[in-house]
Amino acid sequence: MLSAAPAFASSVTSATFTGGAGTVSSGGTLYAKQGGALTLTVVTSSDTQCVDVAGAFTAHATSATAKSNWTFTTTAGTGNGVQAVTAAASPNVNAQDKCTGPSSSLQASFTLDNTGPVVTAALAPAANAAGWNKANVGITWSATDSGSGIGSGPTPATDSVTSNTLTSGLARNATATDKLGNSGSGSVVVKLDKTSPTITGSAAPAANGFGWNNSNVTVSLVCADTLSGIKSCTGGGTVVLSTEGANQSVSGTAVDNADNSANGSVTNISIDKTAPTLTGTPTTSANANGWYKGNVTIGWVGADALSGIDPSTQPANSTITGEGAGLTTSASISDKAGNAVTRSSVPVSVDRSAPVTGVAGSSNSWTNGSVTVVLSPSDNLSGVA
Hints:
The chain has strands spanning 12-19, 23-26, 29-32, 37-55, 59-75, 81-90, 92-93, 99-100, 104-112, 118-124, 137-144, 150-155, 158-161, 170-178, 183-190, 198-204, 217-224, 230-234, 237-241, 245-256, 261-271, 277-282, 296-303, 318-320, 324-327, 330-334, 340-344, 348-350, 356-360, 374-378. By secondary structure, it is an all-beta fold. The strands form ten sheets. Strands 1, 2, 3, 4, 5, 6 and 9 form a seven-stranded mixed beta sheet that branches. It has a three-stranded antiparallel beta sheet with strand order 10-11-13, with no helix packed on it. Strands 12-14-15 form a three-stranded antiparallel beta sheet, with no helix packed on it. Strand 4 and strand 5 (59-75) form a beta hairpin.
């Protein structure tokens, strides 16, 4: 910016930076990195004998005779951003080598760029909230630069991860350079778990040989994942089954941190806590008075509404050989769940002894008239019919 100058002041017509190695012009701006060669050219009125430069760098030049073209060289330093200088022209130089007399000035600038591009990765599909993917991952790299602009890259432009990684993930990198040759790199860690978790179950106590239990069954479901780890285990832990029934099951779902899932269950749990029934009845009928006069064969019938009768425990027919009223025998039976019961048979009455008849009013002598004989029958068990 040209400042107002008093009459007869030297003037600055232009002040411009040009660059050599380590510089680049982009979009009308001269960019330089550290060590870049810079030349400041100042054009003044023809009466100028002294020029001072101040700002990003300082310089002082004089001439024994007036001239209009002045050049100054410098090298770019560290940092980033606009670097401005002010060039002031004066017509005279005093004995102390200082510029004197009316002067005017003009600014010039260049931009330091010592920072490489920013390189970023985009994942497709994006990782979940836990930072994991469960399918092949495509990586697309992009680069931005706030200075001189992208010169090359990013390299590679694309990448992929298709195999399970370690728990810590797999790092992928890309680089890019700006127009000045500053380099920047980006890194992304991909965590890929394509393997479903496991869910395993067990039941205790174990079922018997028929596949039945006669008590509560505790079912345990355990979820596991060796890579991303378990996020949820629905139905996990233990469940106590106490209800009677056949072919019961307990199910669960395991989900790992990559959102792979697996279902599991413990099936065919059959519980029967109720003992069977057992009935023993005579295989033949008593007489009209409800009595038997000899051995009585008892036939046994077992029943179970759930697991069914264990055929190996079906009792054979029993025989009542005694004598008396209300005689019974007993037998035992089990169902397939191992529930057992012992029952007595239906009571029966057995009288093996014939009744007796007493005789009164007779003698063992002869008589020539009527004789009254009194018969007195008796039976000490079933009674006289």
